[in-house]
Amino acid sequence: MSFEYVDGQFKDLADSMTAYIRQNKASANEGEGARFDALQDQKSTHARGRVFATETCIDVRWQFLALPITLIVMSAIFILAMILMTVRKDRTHAWKSSSLALLFSGLDDATRQKQGVLEHLDDMMSAAEKLKVGLRKTDQGWHFVENK
What's the burial of 86, exposed, middle or buried (CB within 10 Å: 0-12/13-18/19+)? Predict the structure, then answer.
């Protein structure tokens, strides 16, 4: 759905409403607001005259904007807090280009202790070249276990 499509739909709606109002007489009942009678014998007439000033009247209902604005502000605060929390941690590394971090996190305890702490991608790559593992079910669930 594009902007042009939505814009065209609203233009068509406005044109239809304008044609209806021009074809039918508008009657106002107190307490109910304005309503439009669709009786064919009550056609409206055009008003003739000169326009001295064009004025746009807009009534913004701010209470309807409070929730979306609050959500946007709170989301921005949340994102900034997450950025600051991850920047402050010295041990946080970005592993976007490699799945080795995921694979090494699935190692069983014995293999993980044997490999030691692997924090950098280069360390994981050198350890992965020497290590052969298979996926097996253990007491704690499915883990990668070293093949011997």
Answer: exposed
Q: Which residues, in sequence order, are bridge partners of residue 136?
A: 143
Does residue 144 contact residue 135 with C-beta atoms inside 8 Å?
A: yes
At 45, list the tokens. 């007439």
As beta bridge partners, residue 29 has 33
Whether this model's pTM surpasses 0.85 = no
Phi, psi values for residue 114, rounded to 5°: -65, -40
**Would you state the structure tokens that stand for residue 62, as one six-digit string?**
């701010």
Q: What is the pLDDT of residues 78-102, one digit of tens each?
A: 999 988 887 766 555 666 677 777 7
d(CA 122, CA 79): 30
